[in-house]
Amino acid sequence: MEPNKNISHSTEPNSKYLRMFFFISGIVATIAYRIIFLLNSFWIEVAWYVGTIGFIFYFGHRSVVESKRAQLVKDYDLINVTEKSDIEYSKKSALLYLIKTSFTSKARFNSAFIFIVSVIVLVLNLTIDIYHLFF
C-alpha cells in the first residue's frame, strides 16, 4: 500500500539537543517536586514553580510525540502493512507489538492531561501570588 501523498507528517525526530532539553526538564521537575519536604517556605515555592514548569515542558512534548506516533500508524496503515509483509515471523511480531502499542497506548492522553492540569494550576497559582502581592 502506497502512503497517502496528502499526508504531511515529518518522520524526522527533533534534534538531539531539543530531546535532551525535554529529558532534563522532566528530571529537574521531578527532583524539584521530590525535595519540597526538605525546604523552607520560600524555596518550596521556587521548587514548586520549577517542577510545574518542567512538567509543562516535558509532558507537553511527550503528548505531541506520542500523538504523532499514533497518527503515523493510522495514516500509513502500518498495522495492516506490517501484517501483510513477508518479514520473518519473530521480527514481524516485534514490529506489530511496537506499532500496535504506539497506536493503542493511552500514554498520550495521560501526558496531555498532566500538561493541561499543570498549565491550569500554574496560571491559578500565579494569579493568587500576584493578587497577594498587591492586596
Can you tell me about this structure?
By secondary structure, the protein is an all-alpha fold. The protein has one domain (16-134). 78% of the residues lie in helices and 0% in strands. The chain has five helices and no strands. The longest helix is centred in the middle third of the chain and has 35 residues, at 41-75. It is elongated and about 70 Å long. The mean pLDDT is 93.
Protein topology:
Layout: H1 16-34, H2 41-75, H3 78-84, H4 89-104, H5 107-134
Helix pairs in contact: 1-2, 2-4, 2-5, 3-4
Short description:
The chain is mainly α and 135 residues long. It has five helices and no strands.
Strand content: under 5%
> Could you spell the SSE succession in H and E letters?
HHHHH
Overall residue-averaged pLDDT value = 93
Q: Multimeric state of these chains?
A: single chain
How would a crystallographer describe the biggest sheet? none
The overall number of domains is 1
Give the helix tally: 5
SSE class:
mainly alpha
Radius of gyration (Å)? 20 Å
Instruction: Please state the overall shape, judged from the principal axes of the Cα atoms.
Output: elongated
Q: Total strand count, please?
A: 0
Low-confidence stretches: none
Distance between the amino and carboxyl termini: 65 Å
- Roughly what percent helix? over 70%
Main attributes?
135 residues; mainly alpha
